[in-house]
Write a structure and sequence with these properties.
The complex is a heterotrimer of chains A (about 750), B (about 160) and C (about 260).
Chain A (H helix, E strand, L loop, with lengths): L15 H6 L14 E7 L5 E7 L1 H5 L3 E5 L29 E2 L5 E7 L2 H9 L2 E6 L6 H4 L14 E9 L2 H6 L3 E9 L11 E7 L2 E6 L4 H12 L6 E5 L14 H13 L3 E4 L2 H6 L7 E9 L5 E11 L7 H10 L1 H4 L4 E9 L14 H19 L3 H8 L5 E2 L5 E2 L4 H12 L1 H6 L5 E11 L11 E7 L5 E5 L8 H13 L6 E5 L16 H28 L6 E4 L2 E4 L2 E7 H8 L8 E7 L4 E4 L4 E3 L4 E13 L4 E12 L6 H21 L4 E2 L2 E2 L17 E7 L21 H13 L10 H14 L1
Parallel strand pairs in A: 1-12, 10-11, 14-15, 20-21, 29-32
Antiparallel strand pairs in A: 1-5, 2-4, 2-6, 3-5, 7-15, 8-13, 9-10, 9-12, 13-14, 16-17, 18-28, 19-20, 19-25, 22-23, 23-24, 26-27, 28-29, 30-31
Helix pairs in contact in A: 9-11, 11-19, 15-16
Chain B lengths: L2 E8 L2 E8 L4 H6 L20 E4 L2 E4 L12 E3 L13 H8 L9 H14 L5 H7 L11 H16 L1
Parallel strand pairs in B: 1-5
Antiparallel strand pairs in B: 1-2, 3-4, 3-5
Chain C lengths: L6 E3 L4 H10 L3 E4 L3 H9 L5 E4 L9 E4 L2 E5 L4 H6 L1 H6 L1 H8 L4 H6 L2 H6 L6 H8 L3 E4 L3 E4 H6 L1 H5 L4 E7 L3 E9 L10 E8 L2 E7 L6 E2 L1 H5 L4 H15 L6 H12 L3
Parallel strand pairs in C: 1-3, 2-3
Antiparallel strand pairs in C: 4-5, 5-8, 6-7, 6-8, 9-10, 10-11, 11-12
Helix pairs in contact in C: 5-8, 12-13
Classes of the chains: A alpha+beta (about 750), B alpha+beta (about 160), C alpha+beta (about 260).
């Protein structure tokens, strides 16, 4: 394999060799001597007061080392969104006053084996006073509904997106459409379950967790354990997928720590697949009621409506998810008038939290379907309609988002040309249809903390090894590799010289975590600054030796050259040796921090600039519907993506392909069902994720707009490709057979029913 | 509790072990033998992450009793490369094609790919999709995994 | 998910196995194990596991007179590659290749697929169309038609030893499976057509109950329009779940489209 792999080159992940050899260590594999097995006692009720807990019998069981309940906690609430949304820290690490969802953690044990832990759980006696429960968000908002968290109408938060004068704009519109869209829940289905291994030693807690955000966990552990952050160390090992489900402290992180201290032995929690499905986090089910207006020339005039999100029993990232679901539209379309209200509602269902897309998948389906309906009403080709209304470069959206580089229109054109939109749309074949959806993504969203910093330190060792310390959490998306590529680029060295140490709260700089598609942009910028810093230190020394200005140096193939004198050349190794030589004696340590410039969101109207860059895409789906069986065959998907600059094109494609397939899953197969708060399909047979046999022909096209703020022009994009997929498919189904599906997943039953209703109506 | 003596050959090494009747092969591999590459990600044979090769066939170790493996020849992911710096062509191909993201499905996926290529050396696109149908990947969308299998098929063909 | 503690037996002959299965309570047979292991993980009531691994006489595929005989413990993957099966009953190989996943096929046995008595099992549907006869250790020979009516009655406290498929030169074989409901891997339905000089056999896997021969529809197959009508009528007799009727009729239309 050819080395170097700096910017713009395909680079296999630097830890891929460990993974193919089977020697990569995940928290799932992590073992400590004397480690005990942790297990939860979960509530059998969806809503109940906890009257009494008796753990005597469990504690007496041979092989049980510790049992904990609310009495072993400081009864301090925590959450994930309280900086911008005060009073949303609403969860105790172990149920304290009430249980609010079926399966909520009430007690935990640490025992010598799985069998003993499971037996001990059965011996814990809990007395409950069962309370009436509510499982539907719209029902929960009605007066008289059971009160879950002391919030009026069970509304945790209402977020408005209100600007301009929507009423007036609708009055002046030539066409108006109204529609309702229903989105179910979805599960992350990370292959590696949630795992937490804790030990308590020398007055310090150490936690090895399968996490996307070790610093977030540290923060909340410090809060709930009442210790300082320096007395907690959270370490991320390899992570088998996150997708938003591992973005915060969960009860297992907290309980592993408390049990480890009480038992005086390390404790490991590893959740079962069933627990993963229904007792961790899930996607917010949402109901959108939307209204859109347009002029007869196709100009989008106004948007209005509401979204009601079923948040489950606690807030988690809910407020940001709902905010994102109504704010995203401003990135994609030019419109000045808006009146949309988002409600994040408490129910006695399991907790809804962050999942790839952060509300953008649900809203992507609703809004992109609505746009298709508007285009139909106006009588305009959907591609033309999108081109007419899409945002431009250097454009400030009506909701305050400051868009700089913007390849949206280019992507719409490229995608439609690549798939031959005109031919497939207008040379009609029975049962075949084509549809488009567009989307935009942020890179960071300073919505949970006063800053969103990332930091990187680069150590150039005496032997020419480079150790890169970054807070960024690689969960398989390839951030370790991207950081290393940036360092390789700046320092002009082969990628294999670099070892990345990441996401260890004691040893690496701070980083908020892998979410909001922020890592390449934010952590990448910090890394670039550190790499430039290290390079400049070396440059100064080499330039001094050759008695030339630093601007006369160039790098290639692990060599440093004098641009104007061919005799002046040295290898990277020689340069490093020079730095550490007796006369120079300088240890090379590069450092960089980056906090993106943004403007806070005004929660009175939903306006603000959450990100310092925005990425864009257009996705077109071509499919065929079998009207007899209701089955849909996807023939081709084309995704054209403005990614700023592809630091690792192969990894960027991998994110697009993985996202599209997750979007296909939500469109056709995935529906995490609950009845009376109980999960109905918490297994992989009845909650079906896409398998290899479900993959259609997909093409991703990378379009580079070279963003000034992003490292080497790169922008974040990891969440975006699943945002428009469901709508593009629904739009294509409409094009094929004339039925408009307003609910996912698109099952054969739904399609046949819609076809029947259509033929009965005509 | 009574234990059962078994003789198994794992990655070329003969082992004499005593196992409980209810011990799963995946736990024997990950526990006593400390071969942690094989993962038990669902416990019910639905995800394929626990795939190992037993007597030449790819099987689910989370649905296999250790005691049923007496006399068996087993290959786990750790047994594929001949030495650390000499990876199996399938392992090389997975790295080269970008088919490894989080990597949790990778050991099982590679062994399923091995069984596919052992029985169908030049698989079509459809045969590749069918051959990997028992292994779930949540990260890659499978496309680069298919690319990797094609690269590996060519490389094995050239040997 | 700790498995319960159980006693493990490795009989060497059918007689030994027969004795164990007749005398032990809370006992299960272990062939491929893909179904049993999931059962063990969920239930703590199984006390004995009888492995068929070393039992002589349960494997093999051979022509015996005018039939093909398959040992019940024959591995599904091996059967899918077996020359004799491919020569005479390719439809069986087609059905096997659509079943579950490669790993499950590598572990599972044809006998096991029948004896789990799952209503949606495809192979029973195919064997029905092939006019198969099943041979049980205790109860003796049972025709497939009788087996699929009450499979549990035959499988309880007994061991399936072999399957006999009468050879008949087939003019046409077709197998179509609605591969999945969208949300689950359990097959929604399957259709199997076997046409020989003796006539046409159309077997239908209803998905939610045991397979049935649709003899009236089979008789009407030469006229596609009449066949669709006959199928709709016969389907109403057997398929109790009204929500499945429309999709199954659509499946049938697809099935006969290129006959």
């Amino acid at each position: 394999m050819k080395e170097f792999t700096g910017i713009g080159q395909n680079a296999p992940h630097i830890e891929a060799k460990d993974k193919v050899l089977g020697r990569a260590i995940y928290a799932y594999d992590f073992k400590l001597a004397g480690m005990l097995v942790g297990r939860f006692l979960r509530s059998p009720h969806a809503h109940a007061k906890i009257i009494k807990i008796d753990t005597t019998k469990a504690q007496a069981l041979k092989g049980v080392y510790a049992v904990i309940t609310r009495e072993d906690t400081f009864k301090i609430k925590y959450g994930s969104n309280s900086y911008f949304f005060p009073f949303t820290d609403d969860q105790y690490p172990l149920a304290t006053d009430k249980v609010r969802y079926l399966g909520e953690e009430v007690a935990a044990v640490a025992a010598e084996s799985e069998e003993i832990a499971e037996a001990a759980i059965k011996l814990i006696e809990v007395e409950y006073e069962v309370l009436p429960a509510v499982f539907d968000a719209e029902e929960a908002m009605k007066p008289g509904a059971p009160m879950i968290q002391n919030k009026r109408n069970n509304v945790a938060i209402m977020i408005p997106a209100v600007f301009g004068d929507a009423e007036k704009a609708f009055a002046e519109s030539d066409h108006i459409v109204e529609a309702e869209f229903r989105l179910p829940s979805q599960a992350h289905v990370c292959l590696e379950p949630h795992v937490a291994v804790a030990k308590y030693e020398e007055g310090k807690y150490t936690l090895w967790a399968s996490t996307q955000a070790p610093f977030r966990i540290r923060e909340n552990l410090a809060k709930t354990l009442k210790v300082e952050q320096k007395d907690i160390r959270v370490i991320k090992l390899q992570v088998g997928g996150g997708f938003g489900g591992k973005l915060e402290m969960l009860p297992l992180d907290y309980c592993a720590c408390v049990l480890a201290k009480k038992a005086n032995r390390p404790v490991k929690f590893s959740l079962s697949r069933e627990e993963e499905f229904i007792y961790t986090r899930r996607k917010h089910p949402m109901v959108f009621k939307l209204k859109g207006g347009a002029k007869k020339d196709g100009t989008l005039t106004a948007l209005a409506g509401s979204v009601i999100a079923d948040g489950g029993a606690y807030c988690s990232y809910g407020p940001t998810v709902v905010a994102a679901s109504i704010m995203r539209i401003g990135m994609s379309y030019k419109f000045q008038h808006c009146q949309i209200y988002g409600y994040r509602v408490y129910t006695n269902n399991p907790i809804s939290g962050a999942i790839r897309g952060f509300g953008g998948v649900q809203s992507g389906f609703a809004f992109e379907s609505l746009m298709d309906l508007l285009a139909q009403k106006v009588g305009m080709d959907p591609v033309e309609f999108h081109l007419k209304n899409a945002t431009d470069p250097n454009f400030t959206a009506a909701n305050g988002m400051e868009i700089t580089t913007n390849g949206l229109k280019d992507c719409i054109r490229i995608a439609s040309e690549r798939i031959n939109w005109k031919k497939l749309k207008y040379e009609k074949r029975e049962g075949y249809g084509i549809g488009i959806g567009i989307a935009a993504d942020v890179m960071g969203s300073k919505m949970y903390k006063s800053h969103e910093s990332a930091g990187t330190i680069i150590r150039v060792e005496e032997d020419g090894s480079v150790i890169l310390l970054t807070g960024a959490a690689d969960t398989g998306q390839g951030s370790d590799t991207t950081m290393a590529q940036i360092a390789a680029q700046e320092l002009g060295i082969n990628l294999s010289r670099i070892r990345v140490i990441a996401a260890d709260t004691e040893n690496t700089p701070f980083d908020t975590g892998s979410f909001a598609s922020r890592v390449t942009f934010i952590s990448g910028n910090a890394t670039k600054r550190a790499a430039v810093d290290a390079r400049e230190q070396i440059d100064a020394i080499v330039a001094k030796k050759w008695n030339i200005p630093v601007t006369q140096l160039r790098r290639e193939g692990e060599m440093i050259f004098d641009k104007e004198n061919d005799y002046n050349r040295m290898t990277f190794m020689e340069a490093v040796k020079l730095c550490y030589s007796f006369d120079v004696g300088k240890m090379i340590l590069g450092r960089g921090v980056y906090n993106p410039p943004t403007k806070p969101v005004d929660l009175r109207n939903g306006q603000g600039n959450v990100s310092a860059g925005y990425s864009f895409e257009a996705q077109i789906v071509y499919l065929r519907v079998n009207k007899d069986t209701g089955r849909v065959k996807i023939l081709k998907i084309v995704d054209a993506h403005d990614i700023g600059k592809a630091i690792n094109p192969m990894a960027v494609e991998g994110q697009i392909e993985g996202s599209v397939v997750m979007g296909l899953g939500y469109s056709f197969y995935e529906d995490l069902k609950f009845k009376d708060g109980k999960g109905l399909n918490p297994n992989l047979t009845n909650y079906r994720v896409p398998h290899s046999t479900d993959i259609p022909q997909m093409e991703s096209i990378l379009f580079e707009t070279n963003d000034k703020e992003g490292p080497y022009g790169a922008k974040g994009m990891a969440e975006s490709a699943l945002l428009p997929t469901a709508a593009a498919i629904a739009n294509a189904i409409y094009d094929a057979v004339g039925v408009r599906l307003t609910e996912v997943p698109f099952t054969p039953e739904k399609i046949l029913k819609a076809l029947k209703e259509k033929s009965q109506a005509s | 509790m009574k234990t059962i003596d078994i003789k198994i050959k794992v990655n070329g090494v003969e082992r004499n072990l005593s196992v409980a009747s209810n011990q799963l092969l995946v736990n024997l591999l990950r526990g006593e033998l400390n071969l942690i590459g094989t993962k038990d990600a669902c416990g019910s044979g639905e995800c394929g992450a626990c795939t190992v090769i037993v007597n030449g066939k790819s099987v689910l170790s989370c649905l296999t009793l250790a005691c049923e493996c007496d006399g068996a020849v087993i290959t786990t992911i750790e047994g594929l490369a001949s030495e650390e710096n000499k990876l199996h062509p399938i392992q090389e191909a997975f790295m080269e094609a970008g088919a490894v993201q989080c990597g949790f499905c990778t050991p099982g996926m590679i062994l399923s790919a091995k069984y596919l290529l052992d029985t169908t050396p030049s698989p079509s696109e459809e045969q590749i999709q069918e051959g990997l149908a028992g292994n779930i990947c949540r990260c890659t969308g499978y496309k680069k995994i298919f690319d990797a299998v094609k690269i590996a098929a060519k490389a094995l063909d050239n040997k | 998910m700790a498995l319960p503690q159980f006693d493990y037996y490795t009989p060497k002959t059918v007689e030994e196995a027969k004795k164990l299965v007749s005398t032990l309570d809370h006992a299960e047979i272990l062939a491929g194990g893909t179904w049993l292991l999931n059962l063990l993980k969920k239930s703590s009531s199984i006390k004995h596991v009888i492995s068929l691994k070393h039992v002589a006489g349960l494997k093999g595929a051979s022509i015996e007179g005018d039939s093909l005989y398959l040992g019940a413990a024959e591995n599904l993957d091996d059967l899918s590659r077996n020359k004799l099966v491919g020569e005479h009953f390719i439809v069986l190989q087609k059905a096997i290749n659509k079943l579950a996943t490669p790993q499950i096929r590598n572990m599972a046995t044809i006998g096991g697929n029948l004896c789990t008595c799952l209503p949606w099992a495809d192979l029973a549907c195919v064997l029905l169309a092939l006019n198969a006869e099943l041979d049980f250790a205790v109860k003796g020979k049972v025709h497939c038609v009788d087996f699929v009516a009450t499979p549990k009655k035959y499988c309880t406290k007994d061991i399936l030893v072999g399957i006999t498929l009468p050879l008949a030169k087939a003019d046409q074989y077709k197998f179509l499976r609605l591969p999945l409901r969208n949300e689950t891997d359990i097959p929604f339905a399957a259709l199997c057509l076997v046409e020989t000089k003796k006539g046409k056999a159309l077997s239908v896997n209803l998905g939610n109950s045991y397979p049935v021969l649709f003899n009236k529809t089979a008789a009407a197959l030469s006229d596609k329009i009449k066949a669709v009508e006959a199928f709709a009528r016969e389907l109403k007799e057997y398929q109790k779940d009204a929500s499945r009727l429309e999709i199954m009729q659509g499946l049938f239309k697809e099935f006969i489209a290129d006959l």
